[in-house]
């Protein structure tokens, strides 16, 4: 049964109930009028000294006799208050009484007919506009969501064949501008970055494993510290996987479906590794293998994975690696890389090949997304919606997106901006051996607009819960007071 049919009673039944109540009330009115008419006739007869019986209710039977005796009527003086009060009402004869009764009945029947007609019109209108609970509206095709959608119950298993996922088309145009944005130098930005490095030193954290990039979107200027040094990005790599997925959807290489958007939401909002694994399988057209592959077969498999790197290299993202999945992957029961995911790390297990991104590359991609230059305007807007974080304390503390991994606001840039009215979009990464984040920050009036990326590739940053919020606060205050 449809929910609406349980909550709203049928309108015709409601009208019938109302009319029955009106009819009952009318019967009460008629009885009252009848009684009043009898009383008036009785009072007139009393004044005239009549002893004629009035009606059957006024007759009494003597228990010892079979004949009916007439009740003695009390004489009423015209000055009696009751007589005076009732004498102002006209006496109704039989014809007037039954005429009044007929009029009341006709009015009631008219109201009943009018209510029935209105109910029929209402039902007809609901049927024509699709509001009738028994008629279902046609379902719409899935549309790209602007906010997370409910999980599905049938995730794609990367150990099985991947549907609708051809290998990455090498002819697909770059996802963003073919050349890096032209950004000038800014002494004030350089001073801000220098202040961040000094704060790190004061906290006794290593600076050799630190990278920073700061871009002012209003002045189109940039400053950085070791910003071209490749470092392990952890879950920040998912920002790049989102862009290439959107590019393939826009180009028609991957079909849109609810499961795919569900995984995209989970990958970005919750940094979910299961969803990320399935998306990698979709964009490469292959799957993770439990067993290692032979030389020739692995070469073909590796080319599909490394096509992700080639995709961005065509847009000027050089010397980067984003072809490896993030672990653990619970639905595959992969606590660490095995099979083909272990093979792609190379033969030197002491120095495995890992994902590698610079803070400049992460900041550049966030710059292009926030400027609606990534893939196309619509795709950029959808990606920004997924990256936005609600910095209200009662939201991110009470309902963290990912209880199993980390909270992308707590101990990161957004925590120290919770009291500010800002637009905040970010992608964070964290392991016990590192901490990373790239974020877009802007005030509603647009006077402050910047991108900040910080990578701390050392266990000391993984343990520190205060350094990222402190660095973020410094940048916001300095950018706001320039």
How would you portray this structure in words?
With 482 residues, this protein is an alpha+beta fold. The protein folds into two domains: 3-129; 184-480, DD-peptidase/beta-lactamase superfamily (Beta-lactamase). It is built from 15 helices and eight strands. Strands 3-5-4-8-7-6 form a six-stranded mixed beta sheet, with helices on both faces. The protein has a two-stranded antiparallel sheet with strand order 1-2.
Features of this protein?
482 residues, alpha+beta, Beta-lactamase, 2 domains, six-stranded mixed sheet, two-stranded antiparallel sheet, disordered N terminus
SSE topology:
Blueprint: H1 3-7, H2 11-47, E1 60-61, E2 68-69, H3 81-86, H4 94-129, E3 184-185, H5 187-202, E4 210-216, E5 221-225, H6 238-251, H7 258-269, H8 273-284, H9 295-313, H10 340-343, H11 359-370, H12 377-387, H13 393-396, E6 423-431, E7 434-442, E8 449-456, H14 459-463, H15 467-480
Parallel strand pairs: 3-5
Antiparallel strand pairs: 1-2, 4-5, 4-8, 6-7, 7-8
Helix pairs in contact: 2-4, 5-15, 6-8, 7-8
Concise summary:
With 482 residues, the protein is α+β, with helices and mostly antiparallel strands.
Mean pLDDT: 77
Radius of gyration: 42 Å
CATH class identity of the largest domain: Alpha Beta
CATH homologous superfamily placement of the largest domain: DD-peptidase/beta-lactamase superfamily
Shape: extended
Strand order of the largest sheet: 3-5-4-8-7-6
Low-confidence stretches: 1-17, 50-91, 121-166
Number of strands: 8
User: How many domains is the backbone divided into?
Assistant: 2
The CATH architecture of the largest domain can be given as 3-Layer(aba) Sandwich
Tell me the β content: 5-15%
CATH names the topology of the largest domain as Beta-lactamase
Helix/strand class: alpha+beta
**Largest sheet geometry:** 6 strands, mixed
How many separate helices?
Answer: 15
Distance between the termini: 62 Å
**Order of helix and strand elements from N to C terminus:** HHEEHHEHEEHHHHHHHHEEEHH
